[in-house]
Design brief:
mainly alpha, 62% helix, 0% strand
């Protein structure tokens, strides 16, 4: 995308405390137009600086390079998030399976305990009925 000729310049970047995505050139960008590149504007009557095609292409290259770096960062971020979500989902499925097994075993234990408790209560009721007959016998033996 580079053309021969013209100066190598970097488009101006706004000052910020963030780290730049791409490595900028060490040459600072110029701030006033170079009228020697376009002889039609040598009289200074036009207030707009001339458009240098090389500078435009270099600016587009910087934007493209930064866009690719940002896209790479997002791709890496989404890949990491997908992996983390997959691990969490896998762990959740494992935990749900473990929970289901534990709940099933607990249900079996509770059912077994309820059955044994029911048998105990029925035995107590039968013993109570039998003890009523023994009370009558005891009253007859010990008046």
């Amino acid at each position: 995308m580079e053309e021969d000729g013209g100066e190598q310049t970097q488009p101006p970047h706004p000052a910020s405390s963030e780290t730049p995505i791409s490595d900028p050139d060490l040459d600072p960008p110029y701030t006033c137009p170079d009228t020697s590149l376009d002889p039609t504007h040598s009289d200074g009557s036009d207030s707009n600086p001339p458009l240098n095609q090389t500078e435009l292409f270099r600016a587009l290259e910087v934007v493209e390079r930064d866009s690719l770096a940002i896209a790479g960062s997002f791709t890496s971020l989404f890949s990491s998030l997908r992996l983390a979500l997959s691990e969490v989902t896998s762990n959740s499925v494992d935990h749900m399976s473990c929970f289901s097994d534990a709940a099933g075993r607990l249900q079996e234990s509770v059912l077994d305990a309820a059955t044994k408790g029911n048998r105990y209560i029925n035995s107590c009721l039968r013993l109570n009925e039998e003890m009523k007959g023994v009370e009558n016998l005891a009253l007859q033996l010990y008046p």
